[in-house]
Amino acid sequence: MSGGAADDPYDVVVVGAGVVGCAVARALARYPLRVALVEAADDVGEGSSKANTAILHTGFDAVPGTLEAGLVRAGHRLLGAYAAEAGIPVEPVGALLVAWDEEQRAALPGLAAKAARNGHHTTRLLGAAELRRREPHLGPGALGALAVPGESVICPWTTTLAYATQAVRSGVRLLLGRRVTAVSGAPGGPHRLSTTRGPLTARFLVNACGLYADRFDALLGVQDFAVTPRRGQLLVYDKPARALVRHILLPVPGPLGKGVLVAPTVYGNVLLGPTAEDLTDRTATGTTAEGLAGLREQGARIVPALVGEEVTAAYAGLRAATGREDYRCAARPALRYVTVGGIRSTGLSASLALAEHVLGLLAECGLRTGPERPLAPVRMPNLGEAFPRPYRDAAAVARDPGFGTVVCHCEHVTRGEVRAALASDVPPAGLDGLRRRTRAGAGRCQGGHCRPALQALFEEHRRSAGRRRYGKDGGAR
Ligand SMILES: Cc1cc2nc3c(=O)[nH]c(=O)nc-3n(C[C@H](O)[C@H](O)[C@H](O)COP(=O)(O)OP(=O)(O)OC[C@H]3O[C@@H](n4cnc5c(N)ncnc54)[C@H](O)[C@@H]3O)c2cc1C
After folding, report:
1. Phi-psi category of 415—alpha, beta or left, where left has phi over 0 and alpha has psi -120 to 50?
2. Which of 146, 151, 198, 301 could disulfide-pair with 97, CB 3.0 to 4.6 Å?
3. What residues line ligand 1, using a CB cutoff of 6 Å?
4. 343 with 206, same domain?
5. Do 83 and 30 fall within a single domain?
6. Closest residue (by CA) to atom 26 of ligand 1?
7. pLDDT for 473 beyond 50
8. Which residues are bridge partners to 96 per DSSP?
């Protein structure tokens, strides 16, 4: 899975293994092509894809007629169906766009009309009384809402992992820990990629570099847009807060995007956020006291009882804003090169539709895929609270007592799940990756209690993998 250029030259190299690059690699895996997915980090989904608001958007509020509007709408349908097949937890809780003043209430019919222009005809205006019946813990002063059925909460970690797993099982070579630093090649010839772990060659190239998509473009002499990292800070409330919120509670959108929301998560928590701060530092994923204080203030207005609830975690992610309310996707046939850039605040929702769009752009560049074939099936371990978890599954425990031994008590994660993640097709590189595959360490104590046990399981796995690789006498097999 890692390492060398055994299949070099590749038909297609996809650079960037976020949710978008993994979806593109998975789509390419349907064809008899040599494909590599190259990622600078030591795991998939380490960029914007690991720290978002985890909503499967319908696209009701996108700018009508944009590429984003069409792809989010299609992506919502595609990912909804794929999630059921692949075991990605999704809860279609629906959204309420809450108006807190007269101006916002007056904007709701316009938002319903916009939703209709985006193909969503099921939104409904709610008066204050019905809104309160639906959300009894809402703060005072809510005047009404637009109900948007279909808006759902999803596990973003499992989504990226499912795509990557299916791509790898279907023959894509996943090359982790390799930053592409330069691209060269004679006109008409293959691309020669310099990476931090040796060269690669590709007939076609896809830039799915997220926050770095403009810098990757520059490696090929392309200058189309500049990325501004737009930070979103979020607070995660502990499980008891889940009873306070039934829907995704959205504000009426302002000029900086979707605004601060309160939403349940598929893990049984409540999210408050995100902020929207335009920065220059593409690595500024830390939270700030000011940002979190602002969130608490807004959260106290939306659901006042949240103030008394325990916070489990705070995190921040960066959106790839480009100064345009749309994606920046382009085919450059002369370069046999496709850019999938500016995938701002909806890339998780649009990912599967984006992947199909990229196949079309690659065809424009001259890629002939050959006949389609079925992908290797994938069924991901369930991380969702609304679906059966292994520690409650008598049959799983009977098969492997490891599934009856809880190692992370906050999140009820068992030794069997940790071992399965460590032995999976796309294994974690560290405890953070393990958390995204199992929820271990994601709970109230943030790994304070279970970290040593998790570390020991990691070491045990490394030792036994080393023994399998080298044999008892230490000689390579
Ligand atoms: C706060 C926040 C909230 C959001 N909420 C939602 C939401 O609720 N719903 C939704 O649908 N979307 C949401 N989004 C948007 C979504 O998270 C992004 O659109 C999506 O994750 C973008 O994925 P990506 O693959 O393009 O980028 P990334 O996940 O950033 O992946 C790009 C990858 O490229 C790699 N890379 C870059 N340069 C190189 C190089 N030279 N060589 C090798 N690798 C390289 C990086 O290491 C990185 O892993 C949110 C985003 C944020 C920040």
Report:
1. alpha
2. 146
3. 15-21, 38-41, 46-49, 52-55, 57, 179-180, 208-212, 216, 232, 274, 317-319, 343, 345-349
4. yes
5. yes
6. 210
7. no
8. 147, 249
Ligand 1: nearest atom to the Cα of 232: 1
Dihedral of CA atoms 208, 209, 210, 213 in degrees, nearest 10, equals: -100
Residues 297 and 376 in one domain: no
CA dist., res. 160 & res. 348, Å (int): 9
Q: Residue 26: CA atoms inside 13 Å, Cβ hemisphere, count?
A: 26
- Per-residue model confidence (pLDDT) at position 465: 84
Q: What is the pLDDT of residue 450?
A: 94
Query: 29 in a domain, yes or no?
Result: yes
Q: At what angle do helices 415-422 and 451-470 cross, to 10 degrees?
A: 40
Domain that holds residue 266: 90-152+228-321
Number of domains within the chain: 3
Whether 477 maps to a domain, the answer reads no
81 and 10 share one domain:
yes
pLDDT digits (tens, 9 = 90+) for 355-403: 999 999 999 999 999 999 999 999 999 999 999 998 999 998 999 999 9
Residue 1, pLDDT score? 38
For the CA of 344, the nearest atom of ligand 1: 19
**Rounded-to-integer distance, Cα 118 and Cα 59, Å:** 7
Which residue's C-alpha comes closest to atom 16 of ligand 1? 347
**What spacing in Å lies between the alpha carbon of 18 and ligand 1's midpoint?**
5
CATH at residue 14: 3.50.50.60
Percent of the chain at pLDDT exceeding 70:
96
Clarify whether 57 is annotated catalytic: yes
Question: Is residue 344 a part of any domain in this protein?
Answer: yes
User: 421 and 282, same structural domain?
Assistant: no
